[in-house]
Design brief:
Structural class: mainly alpha
Oligomer: single chain
Helix content: 55-70%
CATH topology: Vanadium-containing Chloroperoxidase, domain 1
Number of domains: 1
CATH class: Mainly Alpha
Amino acid sequence: MAEGAASTRVAREAWLMPPGLFVLTAPLWLHWYEPALFVAINTLCAPVAASVWASLSLLGNGWGVLGITAPLLVLAPRLMWAWLCAAPFAMLFARLGKGLIESPRPAAVVDNAQMRVVGELLHNVSMPSGHTLTAFAVASALYFALPAARRARHGWLFVLAAGTGLSRIAVGAHWAGDVAVGASLGILAGLLGHVLWQRMGPAHLQPTAWSLRMVAALLVAAAYNLVSEGLDFAEALPAQHALAGVIAVSLLGFARQNWVARAAARP
């Protein structure tokens, strides 16, 4: 892991990304252009099917993230651990923000006839966007876990995270400023998770490791929730079921890895 850790070190300049984004987007979270900006973005997104935005939003839900990243358990457990190390920081930032900042959501301010709302009508605890925060935490954790020479090819991770952020405006749940703050805090969570991830030993990468088996158990819980619950939107149910299928296939692959490892260990 020492060589791998060396090749995935983060330049000091990367730590300027979260505060830089926070400062650059100040006009958004200061609501200089609201509510006109929200209405404009929400209206521009309206022609796109609700199922598209609902599915993109699912990528900011913890169960949804577990579903889409489930193949990493078998193919690249080190990348699975990368975003899992960032998850506690993302949860902490989201809870602190929502607990300390009592900000109204768009539906509490904008005439609902002027906006498109997908799913439940929400009125409070707007800042920051937790879905956006989660999406950017996962994207940045995965991005920085890649060897430095390969990172440029995976900028699409941030494009996908930005799509999740845009979906939160499209469904009528958040202001643009909520999304901007969520993105900056998400990148910070990813960087902090990266520091933690680099201190993990190689033992956690083996399929027979108790820690990786706990991740497999978490995936079982994710599959159950994806199949049995309407997590955020009814329009996202087909995507939820598809992700549950991805988890099922991944768990079968993980079980096979364990069987092969145990067979090889027998005298």
